Structure formats: C-alpha cells, structure tokens
Amino acid sequence: MRDFAKKVKVSVSFISQLEAEKINPSLSKLKDIANALNTTVGSLIGENAKPDDVLIVREKDRKHDDHIGEGINIYLLTSHDPYKQMEPLLLKMDVNANSGEHKYQHFGQEFVLILKGKCEITLNETKYILNKGDSIYFNSNVPHFFKNISNSETEALWVITPPGF
Q: Is the pTM of this model over 0.85?
C-alpha cells in the first residue's frame, strides 16, 4: 500500500480512508489512481456500458473537475464506456490559466478546437496561437504546455486518446 500511495503521490492514510469510503477524492486524484492501476475512472466507480450503447450526457449532468490546474475547469462530455476510443472534454480557462509550471507528455494523441477566446499551445519549443475556430492535432508524447492568452475566459473542445477519465 505504501508503494502504491507513493506512486499516486498521496499518503497511506489517504488510500486507507478512500478504501473505507470515508473520503471523496477529486476527479483528478481518481484519474491518478486509475492511471496507476492501468484502468479508467469509470471502471473505478463501477460505471458499465455495452459496446453498442449510445452515450448521451446532458449539459446539466456533466461531471466537472476544477483541480486540474489553477483557473482551469474540465467538463466530461461523455459518460464512462470501456469501449470508447477517445475522451472529449470541455475546458474553460480563466485569464492567464495554464497547464502547470512544466511541459508534460504522455501516450496518445490530442485534438483541440478553440470555441471562445485565445490559447497558446507549446509543443517542444514551438508556440502556436489558436483563436476561436482554430484547431490543432498533435501526438501527446511531444512535451506540451498550454495557457489562456485572451483577456477573457477561453473555452476549448479537447479530445484525447486513449480515454483517461
């Protein structure tokens, strides 16, 4: 348990309380746990779907996480389906919000469509400025970073593969 807690960057006490259902972790912490277990958040919380199911998520029912980064709110646009091949997300970024202090990379691919505002996405050392209506597609193994460079909220449709939430 100690090794697992270290891998997820939480205390053993946190894992113990989680197992005893005494705490409710954030969506981002559940994602860290799911990644460490090589599964999805949906699998952890017991959601099931058949491969031929149609998945509809009403706007009022979207799951939300505001613990991804300071000033970034992520809305899940689909429910859990162990057979889905992509994860569509809606990101709402406050002025100057960014993905963190350092570039990050992971397995998969990403597609981003700016719905509102202006976003700067850095891939390796190259910066790309995306305005409303612009899109970008890239391999997630390229070190990347993003930030809102608009003077108002920026919204983006962000699709990642493989699904992780």
A: no
